[in-house]
Amino acid sequence: MPSTSIARPVPGTDRIYGPASAALAVALVVIAYRLALGFLDRTELSTDEAQYWFWGQSLEFGAYSKPPLIGWITRASTDLFGQSVAAVRLPAVLLHAATAAVIFACARRLAPQPAAWLAALLYLVSPAVALGSALMTTDTPLLLAAAVVLLAQLRAGEANAAGLRSPGAAVVLGLALGLGLLAKHAMLFWLLGATIASLVSPAFRPSRADLLLAGGILLAVVTPHLVWLAQHGFITFRHIEAITQGPGLSLLRPLRFLAEQFVVAGPICFAAMALAILRDRTDPALAALALTPVLIIMAQGVKGPVLANWAVLYLVPGTILAGQVLVMHRWLALLSLLLGLSVSAALPLAKAMGTDLKMPGGEPLLSRYLGHSDVAHWALDAASAQGADVLIAKDRDLLADLSWFSNGSGLAIRAVPPGGTPAHHWEMMAAFQPGDGARPLLLLRSGAPLRCKDAEVIAQMTAPPGFAGGDTLLLYRLPYPGCLGATASEGETE
């Protein structure tokens, strides 16, 4: 593909899209709406969100299934704003807003101003970002890190083209790459794409000195995490290996994943990205950055399971590519933005006012985010009534809820000691030790009765509609720690 610049004037676009202030106003309204509705949110933390909060309580350089940055962010937000659902999710809105701003800055170096504004808006209202702004996920800081890396790489490339160094851009490049890896190991996809981009386009090629400086900063940032991984048997990589194993080869999985991207990015936006990559005028560097994560995940889909968000990094270069196509097609651009705005309006509203909405089968529409407090408070109250100072559970969802709702109560939450390799973070970092001397010895369990002689059920509950709707929950008093072995062999994958 030719490495010609794509920053070319588009006739009539200023007249079509109006002043930049209109685009800025739309962006600010979307951000303000998400912030305001976040404080009216009536849903509860999902298991994953409560887990991320729990990671932040110890400020380690790693966690069982993912790097530690999301735990640090959640810890900072709850320390500043108090322990609440809104405080956990607040950073998501702000980080995505910052990502949109950085995408604008990147696009402005590659395209006219109208296309740059359109790229930022396409990102901000994409379905993936609308959902990501309503929850706290590892993709959120990952996307911001990728956008900052792109901006720093462009700045360093400009300096190199002029025969200069840009140590400031190199430092930012190294820091953003390192923080991206601390957000999610999928940042390695971006690193590969950025390397290809620098090979095919001079505009993306930093000087050798700047690359060495960026590499040194990157190594300094990620070394503590690598040490943590080594100390814990590279458990995170083993977890990734376990969840990506499939029953056999399949061409349907990658095709399904590709179809799902029309929902992730929005149907018109994703089609525009594809068109931009296919047409001859596309900058090959942006195409490389967008295609690399998509092709890697499609290849993974051939051999094992994939999720729709695993290649979400492509949104950063992809919305810039889409903006350059759609800026020349007024009605398609407006329709794409209106579709995105509809999703952006509906999701926060559903979480604030739609917790009573039901699926056709009667299950709550937002069941994943409901019912957690009912189960946790019932178990914690029952444990307190027994005078317990330790409550043990095996299931990750129960441990996440118990940890979140028991914070500050003085009641320690512990996992059933694993029979082999830990199945989640609590088994690795917070397993019950028989020498802890808990009296009484209480175990919270969901599902089938515990096979242990003399284990006494002291409380029982049928979970209300929500994440565990209809499940039977049993609280046991155990005669001795050996009873925990009856449940230790039941596997669970995070």
Describe this structure in words.
With about 500 residues, the protein is mainly alpha-helical. It has 2 domains: about 15-355, no CATH class; about 370-490, no CATH class. Helices cover about 60% and strands about 5% of the residues. It has 21 helices and 5 strands. It has helices spanning about 15, 20-40, 45-55, 70-80, 85-110, 115-125, 125-135, 140-160, 165-185, 185-200, 210-230, 235-245, 250-265, 265-280, 285-305, 315-325, 330-355, 370-385, 395-405, 425-430, 485-490; strands spanning about 390-395, 410-415, 440-445, 455-460, 470-480. The protein has a 5-stranded mixed beta sheet, with helices on one face. The longest helix is centred in the first third of the chain and has 24 residues, at about 85-110. Residues about 1-15 have low confidence and may be disordered.
Structure keywords:
494 residues, 2 domains, 5-stranded mixed β-sheet, 21 helices, disordered N terminus
A few lines on this structure:
By secondary structure, the chain is mainly α. It is built from 21 helices and five strands.
Write the topology of this structure.
Blueprint: H1 13-17, H2 20-38, H3 47-56, H4 69-81, H5 85-108, H6 113-124, H7 127-134, H8 139-161, H9 167-183, H10 187-200, H11 208-231, H12 235-243, H13 252-264, H14 267-278, H15 284-303, H16 315-326, H17 330-353, H18 372-385, E1 390-393, H19 396-405, E2 412-415, H20 425-429, E3 441-446, E4 456-462, E5 472-478, H21 485-488
